[in-house]
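ingest -> validate -> predict -> emit
validate: passed (alphabet ok, no gaps, 489 aa)
predict: started
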Amino acid sequence: MTDKVSLGKLSTGVPGLDILLGGGLSEFSFNLIAGAPGCGKTTLAHQIMFSLATQERRALFFTVLGEPPLKMLRYQQQYAFFELGKVGTAIRYVNLADDLRAGDFTGVLERIMKEVEDFSPSMVFVDSFRSVAQTARSGNEGVADLQHFIQELGTRMTSWQATTFLIGEYLHSDVEANPIMTVADGMIALSQLHEEDSVVRKIRVVKMRGQAHLAGSHTFRITADGVRVYPRMLPPLAEDHHAGAEVDREPRRIPTGVPGLDEMLHGGLPQGHSVLVTGPSGCGKTILGTRFLQEGVRQGEKGVVMSFEKGAARLRNAELADLVRAGQVAVVESRMIDLTIDELLDELNHAIDRTGAQRVVVDSLSEMGLYLAPESRDRLRAVVFRMLAALAKRGVSVLVTMGVDDQFTCLKISHADIAYLTDAIILMRYGEADGLLRKFLSVVKVRGSSHSQDLREYVITGEGLDIHPQRTEYEGVVHGLPQAPRAGN
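emit:
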């Protein structure tokens, strides 16, 4: 006999959670949802329950010594996943507080089984199960009785072909020594990390029998829609990165919106490339990003701009504002100061999916670092790498800006741990000449492509950036401006 038993999978209805679980929850499994008070256990359980519950797949939700059902319903119905029409028909709430106070696990088990027989549920939830364990420590029955109760409950639920969830306020050390773990098929642990003034929620699949689940801690957030999980994983490789893939030696060039820059790029930016525009404050980085998006629209390519402190209202460009209103350019902006890269990527990907955008501007990496949670802020290089890798997979062309200090006496292209992540670098900087503060631009690198070695002067006009033609020498002496950098690929 070589046929294997196939485990049925239940989709949880929680965005991102099925990826962590390895495809969903095993049907008829015995699961523990654990974590400290306030981390979202009850909300997660309700979101799973309302997603799965139907007239054919009914759910029983037992409350113990935690929130009474009426109080729980009052708060849970504030979430978008809550469907009042399912309560009483597909979902039934039962309060076990009086049964548990009697201190008899046998009586509690009999009450549970009576409700199961009457309602024939496919899912059973017990919240909070820690109350049962505390009763074993302080009541007439001990831990051995508790373990027998848990094993008996698990066995009976499986025989009834029910998927069971025990919800409790457990720390990791508590769970390891708890008899629940000996019979639990799966365990989902929730936590809240408090660092500086930010709080980041984390979810971890500690155990999931028979499934290749995704290990490690992953960010999740509770919104008006409920729980949303952001799996911490890299996107698949772009097609041209796979072994044996045919590589386009001459990718299509796209105009940047600045003719002088297109000339320096020998025809424009290679389509699908990422370009880092660096320079000090006021040199025109945001203006270049704006022209990049406007030119895309003229070429029939929609765009997305991710902005932080500036916001769409501060771009000061009526034409771009019109494009935003017309739906040609989408704006992704946030005022939350504890964002993670997973949330940023999720918002960005949704905007690209919604608009079909082929150009993206991130303005700027410097400001983005201010809005990230401390754990992401300390790993800015990894954050940028994941973002650019995800966008490269989508084949969009990306322009990111980053501020650098201009010390005039030295040439600083970018932060050392960021510069090599992009396909191209454009350097903008100042120089003093004849009592004037002038602006200069250079293409530092373009991977796999030739480009100009020139250092060109430019001015900011009402039309954007006007890059001057190549000159063999400048009038007067330009102070604090080293020799133009030589490009390297």
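Residues 240-245, 482-489 have pLDDT under 50 and may be disordered.
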